[in-house]
Amino acid sequence: MKKHGLFGELVGEVFGTFILILLGDGVVANVGLAPRLAAGGYNWNTITIGWAMAVIIAVYVSGGVSGAHLNPAVTLALAVKRGFSWAKVIPYWIAQMIGAFLGAFGVYLVYLDGLKAAGMPNVWATGPGSVFGQTFWGAGAATAAGPYSLLVACIAEIFGTAILLCGVLASGDAKNMGLKDNLGALIVGGAVLAVGLSLGGPSGYSINPARDLGPRIFGAIVGTKGLFTGAYWLVAPVLMPLIGGVLGALAYDTFITPNLPEKN
Questions:
Q1: Domain interval for residue 45
Q2: Is a pLDDT exceeding 50 seen at residue 143?
Q3: Residue-wise over 118-148: b if at least 16 C-beta within 10 A, else e?
Q4: Whole-prediction pTM value?
């Protein structure tokens, strides 16, 4: 992991996050734009499975280079509770944002014809105007995703990101279930799937500031409207995951770590 130092780690974060968004936003575009599906045929299960697989592939690809954070909330939580260098936090965040932006560009290239035909809808980010929100709740739905308030969306993001971090920490905890390194990505992907299926409704489950903000910036550049309207875009999908990630790491180390058996 240290062969090329910090630069190599940042390249790993860029490439891993690129894959994450290419596949993650790609499944949103695929389902949301598919001509075979009317609005009522939007399949949330397909979205959650697609995102979980995106996480698994991205972690397997970049894990040996950068640790596969791919998420500013993970980077911050590991700096707070696992000794990750604070000097690397901002560079990792920048790399993750670049990768997310480039991943959105990849989705744009793949689905260009469909996006243009549909008027460049929001397949990029969560919240108001997203394909998810418009399909389930209607174009005029409330300030968050559907009938949910901004407060409830924030609570969902905090809980969702906290669960994600519990999964991340457990996947790499040799004292817990004896999990091997090559299976850790499956646990993290499973955590993302569980969060999406169980807690994703109120906010669209960003649980990753770069995942939401990088593609949101790209979407605004290519003409998607309403991506930066109001305060939602900053509060729920960007700030709350940072808080939730740290809380998740604190919860794991409060309730689980002290009670794990010592291993030889």
A1: 5-259
A2: no
A3: eebbbbbbbbbbbbbbbbbbeeebbbbbbeb
A4: 0.93
